[in-house]
Specification:
By secondary structure, the protein is an alpha/beta fold. Helices cover 60% and strands 9% of the residues. The protein has helices at 3-17, 24-40, 45-60, 62-65, 70-85, 114-127, 142-154, 167-180, 198-211, 226-238, 256-265, 286-293, 297-308, 312-323, 329-342, 345-351, 355-358, 366-377, 381-385, 392-402, 406-428, 430-439; strands at residues 102-107, 132-137, 159-160, 185-190, 215-221, 243-247, 269-273, 281-283. Helix 2 (24-40) runs antiparallel to helix 3. Magnesium ion (MG) binds at residues 114-115, 138, 144, 189.
Length: 442
């Protein structure tokens, strides 16, 4: 599931990440491609529209166009929007404490996966340390009780069942039985029903009142696509649900249901069923699914990088300092820590306006940088802010403090002075300034 949309979007993201500049047209084109991919994945049209509009609006904001890394910032927006589309954060089951009985009521259409999910959920909760019991309240299909019994046996969880009874009675008695026998979680499997079947809907409403469930979960089949979203909406209206479990997520369905549910009905997707076996149930993590759709690890790294990079404000401040030659050793030192975050010398050069011309590769070999950092760290704050006060005796002290020969200290100071002058000259040059400003999108 989600492979196709993931292929598409990951491609779009790859293209974007390489872009040093982004135009209005880039934004429009990219968003259009995303729109098509989402629609092809069977995502609800209203959801697509909202996603598209919000993405465009944010991408046009200062944050992207003026950023030093517009491609990455844009990807971050797409990623964040995708996460919020999927429901922001993982929504766990809201159950009572271990000493009080909690009930989970499962409902849905016929064949949606309720009975299988009951056993899967029981197993998951048992692993979390709860004491679950399954309740066979589907008395419509004769084989349903037996199916749950077999499943319960396979996960070693007791199944409460009655012959010749009604679902309401079964539920009532199961609660009493669970309380007496120290179970703390009831998982109630019910008959499949259509939301248009008034009699059956009245029944599930009664069961709901009887068991006052902590969680009322709709089990929906991912393969039914948009219908799953519709059904969720209808059940929410007539019975009230607290969330959805999307079964058969392992199918090659297009994924639109998973992507639309939260936005359309406002109820979270809590788990996904990923196979026929009892341990094929996974908590639904919006963040992970979004990353998967957009091309996995790449995006996460890119987004992290974008968060760490220098922002426009900082860049402009730095540029002003360079122009007025108030760029100090303290600022220079700050670039080192930035480099450590960014992880490459090339990116440092790109971060410092004017540095490309003023510094050669030789000036910034990693070993040399470590030495320079040590030297600056051995200076007092006054010295860092005004390198001109550093006379011979201060140089000797700094050399000693940083464990470097004096000539290294001299070399750094000389290089820094030259760099400052070059940068000042460079940034005063009109043509150069224009180029620099365009680099920051101003
Ligand atoms: N591949 C796959 N099959 C599933 C999943 N969940 C349920 N099924 C299958 O779907 C069919 C109907 O499941 P069942 O639990 O009986 O549905 P119910 O009628 O809603 O109780 C069974 O064949 C299950 O094995 C799932 O997550 N993945
Ligand atoms: Mg069933």
């Amino acid at each position: 599931m989600l492979e196709r949309i993931s292929d598409k979007l990951a491609g779009i993201v790859r293209q974007l990440s390489g872009k040093a500049q982004i135009t209005e047209k880039n934004i429009q084109d990219t968003v259009n491609e995303i729109k098509i991919a989402l629609l092809e994945a069977d995502v609800n049209l209203r959801v697509v529209r909202r996603f598209v509009n919000q993405t465009i609006e944010e991408a046009r904001g200062e944050g992207v166009l003026k950023s030093v890394t517009p491609g990455q910032q844009f990807i971050k927006i797409i990623h964040d929007k995708m996460v919020s589309l999927l429901g922001d954060s993982r929504q766990t089951l809201q159950l009572k404490g271990p000493d009080t009985l909690s009930t989970i009521l499962l409902m849905g259409l016929q064949g949606s996966g309720k009975t299988t999910t009951a056993a899967k959920l029981g197993l998951a909760l048992k692993k979390e340390g709860r004491k679950p019991m399954l309740v066979a309240a589907d008395l419509v299909r004769p084989a349903a009780v037996e199916q749950l019994r077999v499943l319960g046996e396979s996960v070693n969880i007791e199944v409460y069942r009655e012959d010749d009874s009604t679902p309401q009675t079964v539920v009532k008695n199961a609660i009493a039985y669970a309380k007496k026998n120290q179970f703390n979680t009831l998982i109630i499997d019910t008959a499949g029903r259509l939301h248009v079947d008034e009699k059956m809907m009245a029944e599930i409403r009664e069961i709901r009142v009887l068991c006052a469930p902590s969680e009322c979960l709709l089990v929906a089949d991912a393969m039914s696509g948009q219908q799953a979203v519709e059904v969720a909406g209808e059940f929410d209206k007539t019975v009230g649900i607290t969330g959805v479990i999307l079964s058969k997520f392992d199918s090659d369905a297009r994924g639109g249901a998973a992507l639309s549910l939260k936005s359309v009905i406002g109820k979270p997707l809590k788990y996904i069923g990923t196979g026929e076996k009892v341990d094929d149930l996974e908590p639904f993590y919006p963040e992970r699914i979004a990353s998967r759709i957009l091309g996995m690890g790449d995006v996460v790294t890119l987004v992290e990088k974008a968060q760490n990079t220098i922002d426009v404000h900082e860049a402009e401040k730095l540029q002003k300092k360079l122009q007025s030659a108030t760029f100090t050793l303290e600022d220079y030192l700050e670039q080192f820590s930035r480099l450590k975050k960014m992880g490459s010398i090339q990116s440092l050069i790109e971060m410092i306006p004017g540095a490309r011309g003023a510094l050669s590769e030789d000036d910034i070999d990693p070993e040399g940088m470590k030495r320079e950092e040590a030297i600056i760290l051995s200076m007092t704050l006054d010295e860092r802010r005004n390198h001109r006060i550093i006379g011979p005796s201060r140089r000797r002290r700094i050399a000693k403090g940083s464990g470097t020969p004096v000539f290294e200290v001299n070399r750094l100071l000389k290089k820094f002075e030259t760099m400052r002058l070059t940068m000042k000259k460079a940034t005063k040059n009109k043509k150069y300034q224009a180029k620099l400003m365009s680099q920051f999108g101003a």
